[in-house]
Amino acid sequence: MKRTIAIAMLFFGLAAGVSAQPGTGSYNLSKSGLAIEGYDPVAYFVSGRAMEGKKEYSYTIQGVTYQFVSPQNRDLFKAAPVKYQPQYGGWCAYAMGAKGEKVEVDPETFKVLDGKLYLFYNKYFNNTLKSWNKDEANLKMKADANWDRINK
């Protein structure tokens, strides 16, 4: 029993501290160079859901490629990219606030807050959105400061 608990604690500890950086620079990019692993950034706002974009509706801005579910979403993004781009370069908002680290995300674990998109790590029984919600104001303030420091 003690061994099982120790393994579980190690497992959860590793999951909480994952700092994989598949992207380059400030943006969290997939191995194929896509932002948000190919999910449509506009869909989070328009439909309230995470939706995978299509290659034929791609748009690249500042070397970062986004995919969209429709040409309409792509056009909305083109008109106001800053409005739809995820905060903290698409890295986990919780990790940015808690430790100032760039941590991968699950594109289906998100929150739209004050017109901004926040993405979160959610693997191995560690949904950081739940932790974010418990101390959102403090974590957001710290994440903003950490991102400003990292993203200079």
Q: Would you give an account of this structure?
A:
The chain has helices spanning 2-16, 43-46, 71-79, 81-84, 93-98, 128-134, 136-150, and strands at residues 54-61, 64-68, 106-113, 116-120, 122-123, 126-127. The chain has 152 residues and is α+β, with helices and mostly antiparallel strands. 38% of the residues are buried. The chain folds into two domains: 25-85, no CATH class; 88-152, no CATH class. A hairpin with a 2-residue loop joins strand 1 and strand 2. Mean pLDDT is 87; it is low at 1-24.
SSE inventory with pairings:
Elements (H helix, E strand, L loop, with lengths): L1 H15 L26 H4 L7 E8 L2 E5 L2 H9 L1 H4 L8 H6 L7 E8 L2 E5 L1 E2 L2 E2 H7 L1 H15 L2
Antiparallel strand pairs: 1-2, 3-4, 5-6
User: Roughly what fraction of the amino acids lie in strands?
Assistant: 15-25%
Q: Please give the share of residues in helix.
A: 25-40%
Largest sheet: 2 strands, antiparallel
Radius of gyration: 16 Å
Low-confidence stretches: 1-24
- Principal-axis shape: globular
Average pLDDT: 87
Give a quick summary of the entry.
The chain has 152 residues and is α+β, with helices and mostly antiparallel strands.
Task: State the main characteristics.
single chain, 152 residues, alpha+beta, 2 domains, two-stranded antiparallel ribbon, 7 helices, 20% strand
